[in-house]
Amino acid sequence: MTTTIGTPADNSVDSGPKEGIVYGGETLKAHRDRIMEATRSTGHYAGLKDKDLRASSPIQYNKIFSRLRAGLVDARETSKKIAASPIVEQEGELCFTLYNACGDSILTSTGIIIHVGTMGAAIKYMIENNWEDNPGVEDGDIFCNNDCLTGNVHPCDVHTLVPIFWEGKLIGWVGGVTHVIDTGSVGPGSMSTGQVQRFGDGYSITCRKIGSNDTLWRDWLHESQRMVRTTRYWMLDERTRIAGCHMIRDLVYDVIESEGLDAYWKFAYESVEHGREGLQNRIKAMTIPGTYRQTAFVDVPFSHEDVRLPSDFAKVDTIMHAPSEITIRSDATWKIDFEGASRWCWHTFNANPVSFTSGIWVMMTQTLIPSEMINDGAAYGTEFRLPKGTWTNPNDRRVAFAYSWHFMVSAWSALWRGLSRAYTGRGYLEEVNSGNANTSNWLQGGGFNQYDEIHAVNSFECAANGVGASATRDGISHAAAMWNPEGDMGDMEIWELAEPLVYLGRQIKAGSGGAGKYRGGCGFESLRLVYNAKDWTMFFMGNSNITSDWGLMGGYPAASGYRFAAHDTNLKELIESGAEIPIGGDTDPENPKYDALIPDAQIKRDKQAVTTEEAFKDYDLYLNYMRGGPGYGDPLERDPQAVIDDMNGGYVLPRLVETVYGVKATENDGVWELDESGTEKLREDIRKDRLAKAKPVSEWMKEERQRIIDKKAAIPVQLMYAQSFKLGQRFRKEFRDFWDIPEDWDLLEEDLPVPSFGRDRAMDISELPDVHMVKFVEE
């Protein structure tokens, strides 16, 4: 057999003293190194400028594709019935992916498809660090990984990885991932916030062999079940992943038996190049070459007394900064650059670069490439620059990752806006998306549940947030999450079985979607009553004072977060007496109704939407508020009747209709009706008022420049920019040039009244003995 890229090497080629396990005789590392060198030198994955199988046998190529894709989806839908966790069974927080021998994704199922790349990163880590020799990779082995330093998003995403052998040689891998309900971290739940370093993130597993001969090892079973609070869920999630992986492995065997090993091997490499070309073709068809800049922010309000941390140096209010630049070239290649991002900090919101290189698929399959050919081709077709030391690419192995999504969903909302401007330029208005919702609140906690078991919860209702508006229609309400387009809020009855929390209401969150010519989709809210729980704690996790979901083309941002909790409510006595109690939604938080019904309760109603564990007891209340999406276009251009329909449907607060939308309405027997003449006059008056208040841009810039020079900004804002200037010298220069800043002006972190811990010293994971990291991005 001749040696060509994408097909196995001739055994006569000298590949070292030991024959490798890969089909054709190479070692895993030699095989991957060869494929990567061919990719770099030719610009085509594995050097496959010509795709032999797809060109010569297109029907067979598509037959293999269809069988594998359908089998992956079937394995997901079948295996998730094994799981007991509502996160998996109700929300569909799982995914299966098929890989070629060097760890590049061929195809994936539906679900949390960000893990196309994270599981591949784990496989590549094993290859790079010679797992082939020690601990060995053999037919029937089972590996487990959730280590964020190898490329995982956060520790609660647990991978099961199974090598696929044919006649004694490795021909690929299959991976399965589920979002587990607890990781044994400092606080209960899958994404706790009380820790400030990764050593508190919970059970950490680095590509560990946990079984052989398709059987889990007993020492692993004994260890893993005692490392988490939710033992039953953990064990059944693992069986879910293994069952799906083995179903897919059997499918590969069937395909090889019917189509031949040579055809399968070629498909395993040609499909990745097919995915890369597909992305490039869509970029060429749907966008305009140029540079698109945007930015994003989200707050970390850690100084509050209800954020209890083990280290005083972390008790600092900070702001995440994510300026991004999308460069689309005339040859339809592109680059995404986060120059100017702020530094990683002592919280759980930092991200690994693979979260971006893999996560790009979550966005792209919803807009640019709505294709079933979901594989690593998009990653090879995209250049990333994530500066080292920023929150996008930390340079310290102590960094925590438990809730990386808090930052990532905020940063990606900006990328939606950049792409949407490119779509607008080509007239693809229906593909415009004003941005994704900040996927929160996360109701998490634990203790002893209604079954007297140690338990933890993460209510995945926020898998159904509002969606951003497009240029042609309103965003969909309470529909999906950015990280899982198939997300669902789940059945209340199932959540009540899993949690000692009774529903007192679940309704649309009026006004949560951003206003606009087209309104952002609204989120929803659930009022939960603690019942039959013991030693129970819960906490809040979401955006607080800053909305991270800006509108587009004049559209308004989505509403930001807040919290409502009530302790010592006396609800038991009120229920027994038949008195009115809080039920339904907290419709208008500025004019609350709950509070007056429980006047003696200890109520927490404020913008502190990030907290750590707080004790709750029976009959205490917790409001779980899921965010909406941003709007598109000027609200004054919205069809007035659509505004009236929103009022009657509970999507907008009546008190905002006149000031935001310029709509006059009258109420008759609880039904709102349009006042057409009043609306026309009101909108005319609002437009005149806008002009009267407006000032020339040059005047505004002069005022803003002076504020910058005088450093008239809150300490968290100054700290954010000081970090961005230090880590992004190009960003610093462009900022200074744009605002014409004097040469002697500077903004340094050491001049601000904040702790210096972690500012000047770091130790990267690559500095550990015998650790060889795989580099996925420009740094």
From TrEMBL:
Pfam families: Hydantoinase_B. GO terms for biological process: glutathione metabolic process. It comes from the Bacteria. InterPro entries: Hydantoinase_B, Oxoprolinase-like. Residues 58-635 form the Hydantoinase B/oxoprolinase domain. One of its GO terms (cellular component) is cytosol. One of its GO terms (molecular function) is 5-oxoprolinase (ATP-hydrolyzing) activity. This is Acetone carboxylase subunit alpha. It comes from Corynebacterium falsenii. The lineage of its organism: Bacteria, Bacillati, Actinomycetota, Actinomycetes, Mycobacteriales.
